[in-house]
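User: Here's a protein and a ligand (zinc ion). What would the complex look like?
Assistant: Let me lay out the input and then the predicted complex.
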Amino acid sequence: MSAPTPDAAIPAPHGSARVHEPRRGDCPWCGSARLRNRLRTGDLRRHRPGLFTVDECRDCGHTFQNPRLTAEGLAVHRRAVRGAPRDPATERVLALHAVRHRRRAAARAMLPFGEPESWLDVGTGLARFPQSAREYFPYTAFDGTDLTARVEKARTLGHVEEAHVGSLTDPAVRARLAGRYDVVSMLHHLERTTDPRAELHAALDVLRPGGHLLIETVDPRCAFAALFGRWWLPYDQPRRLHLMPRRNLRAALEERGCVLVTGGHRAAHVPHDLAGLAALALSHALPAPDTPWRAIPPTPFRRRLRTVLLRAGTPLVVAAAAADLALAPLLRHTPFANAYRVIARTPGS
Ligand SMILES: [Zn+2]
């Protein structure tokens, strides 16, 4: 597949702001200096400027953005920008009805452990997961944390009882919530945090003794990652910072005395690898879209051509999405599964 021109020469959206930390020479998970480069890519999904690198530790398999974006750089890339292009095909892949189905499956996975009194969903956004989980746990009090004020909106809508804006690793948030919860959930949250190990420890601190931590996260060992390279949608650069192999997560939880009560790929696989590849490849094979950071906007003809060709290519993405769904029952048992679920019980009663 032909590579789109890197946009590295284009200044970042906020001129002088430093968007990258210094590049690190060691693995942020185990400290090993044996790193290898996995990929270099631009922001394939949102067409924002910048070039990003993902490295992998040869010793523990931890996969991470290196150099990492600064907090300011991350905020720029996570914010909606007026006039920024949205690829209808890619957005549709991400918004497949299967997302709701997966939230319900994650909630059902907690049924064998009884009805919790209190449940904290970390990185909850508009608290769609607590909404789904309530179908199975109608008497549980759900709270949420998020880096953005969306969690406040979720509270006013009645989706959560308490809303905490900020990181769970923030000492003030952590102290306020210490030892309060029967369940803490982190669904596709760890990969977006700057320090996933600190985030894990904070989650364990807010659990009661004998409480349960529910995690779903991307598996960097997925065979699609090696096959598709930077066109593998779950890399989602530059928004995903750390991808952890399951054994690393398991070891970190066991170090804290947790018992893994379940863990596997079967239920957590997200069937969107082929559709993601088709949508990203289609979007980048066409004339580039207009963006607020382009010095010379495309001509009206090229703009129109892009719209028409994107529409014409949509059946390809739909066919790939159908193939994803059809293959999911098989792939989720193979190295092609792209995510895993871990449920750990903290020590105590
Ligand atoms: Zn490592």
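Summary: Residues 1-16 have pLDDT under 50 and may be disordered.
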